[in-house]
Amino acid sequence: MAVRNVAAGRNASEAIRAEIPGAIVHVLEMDLSSMDSVRRFASEFDSLNLPLNILINNAGIKAWGCTRSVDGLELHFATNYIGHFLLTNLLMENMKSTSSESGVEGRIVNVSSWWHFAIYPEGICFDKVKNPSR
């Protein structure tokens, strides 16, 4: 599991193991708003040499006002879109290898919410993503 809060992730993994005896659950830290954190996570995951059959991109935020990520991107855009895109791309080769070795096609599931309707009426202004006035 990729988690921003490791303590909460460990609690969740213990609950999973209590419900499913023998389950193997790895908890690795990742902050989707930080591209360095996403890269570190992907590297750590790859070093475990685990198969990857399914990737569920299910993290997102909704904060009020204009906040910037550590990379200078608007926080929602960094967390809800760019982080998932980067993570998926970094793990794609692992998923392809797993599929090739197991004969089972991998799956990528992107989960969303209705908050995308609350975005700027003009849509995403890609030329202004790093503009601090937006």
Automatic annotation (TrEMBL):
<dbReference type="InterPro" id="IPR002347">
    <property type="entry name" value="SDR_fam"/>
</dbReference>
<dbReference type="InterPro" id="IPR036291">
    <property type="entry name" value="NAD(P)-bd_dom_sf"/>
</dbReference>
<dbReference type="InterPro" id="IPR055280">
    <property type="entry name" value="TIC32"/>
</dbReference>
<dbReference type="Pfam" id="PF00106">
    <property type="entry name" value="adh_short"/>
</dbReference>
<protein>
    <submittedName>
        <fullName>Uncharacterized protein</fullName>
    </submittedName>
</protein>
